[in-house]
Structure formats: C-alpha cells, structure tokens
Amino acid sequence: MPKSRTRHDGDSAPRRLGASTAQPGSARGRGATANPDGRFEAIAREILDDGWPTGEPAPVRRTEVTLERARTIITRNASPDIPFDRSINPYRGCEHGCIYCFARPNHAYAGLSPGLDFETKLFAKPDAARLLERELSAPGYAPRTIALGTATDPYQPIEREHRITRAVLAVLARFRHPVGIVTKSNLVTRDLDILGGMAAQNLVKVAVSVTTLDPVLARRMEPRAPHPQKRLEAIRALSAAGVPVMVIVAPIIPALNDHEIEAILAEARACGAGEANHVLLRLPHELKDLVADWFAAHYPGRRRHVLSLVAQARGGRAYDAAFGTRMTGTGAYAELIATRMRLAKARLGYARERVTLDASAFARPGEQFSLL
User: Fold this and answer.
1) Percentage of the chain with pLDDT > 90?
2) CATH of 4-48+61-348, one of 3.80.30.30, 3.40.50.2300, 3.30.200.20, 3.40.47.10
C-alpha cells in the first residue's frame, strides 16, 4: 500500500498528503494539516473525502496525556556541534503544534504519527524530579550544564497542570547544578522565584525562540504557542530578574519569515536579550511532507519556492544532517542569512561570546566535605 498520494489543489503545486490524512475539520486549532503514519509502521491508512455529506461535524482532536514511567531522565549525547552533552525533556510531543518542529519525527518511535498525533497525544514524565535527584546523587556523577527542553518545550501548556519542569528546576537549584532552558513560552516567568536565585549564582540561562512578530503567521505556524509579544515580555521579565537571555530566531523559513530577522533581533535586544542565534528550517524524515502539506493549505503559491530555497541550502536535498551545518545550512542563501545575523547582532550590541555557566558550585544536599 503506498505511503502517500498526490492531490492537486487548484493552481497550487501538487500537495503531498500523509498516508493517514486528518479527517476534514479535525485539525482546527492545530498546526499539522495531516496525520501520516510513522515511517516504522507496516500498514498505512488514508482517510479520503468521498464528497458525501455525513451531516455531522468532524470531531475536534483533544489533547491526551499519557504518564510515562521512565527509568532515567538525563539523556546523553556526543554531538560535536552543540554546546551540551546532556539534556532533560519532561515531555514527549508538544501541544504548541509548531508545524516546523524538528522533533515531530521522534513520535514515530512510539508508533504514533509525527503529524496531529505529535501535538495531541503527549507523554509526561511525572517521576522526572525524583529520577534526577537520584542521578545527580550518584557518586560518579560529574556536573556539566544540563539543557532543558532541547526536543519539546518544557513550558508547553500541559506544564501548567503537571509542573514537572518546575520540579526539575527545584532539584537543580538544590544541587546548585547549571541548566540552560530553551522555550517559546512566557510560562517560564512563573518560575522566576527559582530562576532568579540560580542566576545570582551563574547557574542558569534561558533561550527564547521568536519565529515571527506577525501574530497571524504565528497562529498558523505555532497555533498553541504564546503570542510573539508575550515572548518578548518574557525576555524583558527574565532580563530584569538578572537571568541571561538569548533570543533564537528559529526556524528561519525562506520566503516566509526571513525578512523579519533584523526586526526580531531589534525587538529582543530592546527587551534585554544579550545573545542571539538562528536556525534554518530543518526537514528530517516525515517533516518534509508535513511542511509541504501545510504550505499547500495556507500559502500554496509559495510552496515550491520555499522548498527550492531550502534545498539550495541543504546540498540539493530537503535536509542534510551533517554536523556543523545542519542548523544553518550551506551555500549562498545560508551565507546570506548568516551575514545578516552577524551584521545585525554587531549593530544592536549583542554579545560576541556566550555566557558560560558555573559547574564548580555543584554539591549534593547534605554532603559532608573533608578538610583533609
């Protein structure tokens, strides 16, 4: 059975649909416009509209949360092009529903779709804080900065109820362990009582992702993420509390939001961001078809041009996972973006060097030190 089929949408380029396409109307308020089967599934299914009215509206997809009993919570990596070797993700899947999220294909490992399933069928790790305390207490543990939220957002909407991220931060604060947080949510400011104290000890920095300043585009790309102004307000509040903040212009999508680079950097700098970085759109595995389908639904006239520019920056392919260039791409377009970033950062006074957190203060609570 074929994994996908091609449909023509009026004057747009062919729209490539995932095998298990969403029932019409069921994706309201979500980012993905399809729900393709994961790449590991042996059987592919597809919902087709036969044109006959059913008389009933399509069911709206509700968010489902499954509690996951993990055995460990710190994930290790040896990637040479990222500045951390360990991370914690309190959640799998993300209710923000960002269509461009590079973590979507990971949902296939759970037998779920990288499409609508990724943003509606979530996993929470309620034992995260307990597991973290156990792992930090191990005699052989050597502290280095932990990255929090590298795959899915630690401050996505379900954190309001589950509060797993807050519990993890409380443990890190007690152990005086450095942490770097990546988020696009102003919910991070809820934890300023913890983050402010950690910042005073050089134990925390926060990276806030701002994709666009256009609320209409933001609602289409990342439907359940906070309004762009809320993210700028979060940068201001964090900075005022003494927390070092980086703004990440990510992802930069050719011919869609790339014209906003300088404006985003200027707004974030005015709010107190001290560092800035960018990531070019990444389209691993199923994400290529999901993004193409989204463009066909929202910006059909740009689909072919956008994917062409992405390919030009990815060695002629939809994605190149090579270390060192996977975040920013290569070629003329990628170099143009990098140059614009560099010039704007210099003009606006962003720091050239990144803040380095302090791991020397790490101590297990109650640990006794010998004077000999």
Assistant:
1) 80
2) 3.80.30.30
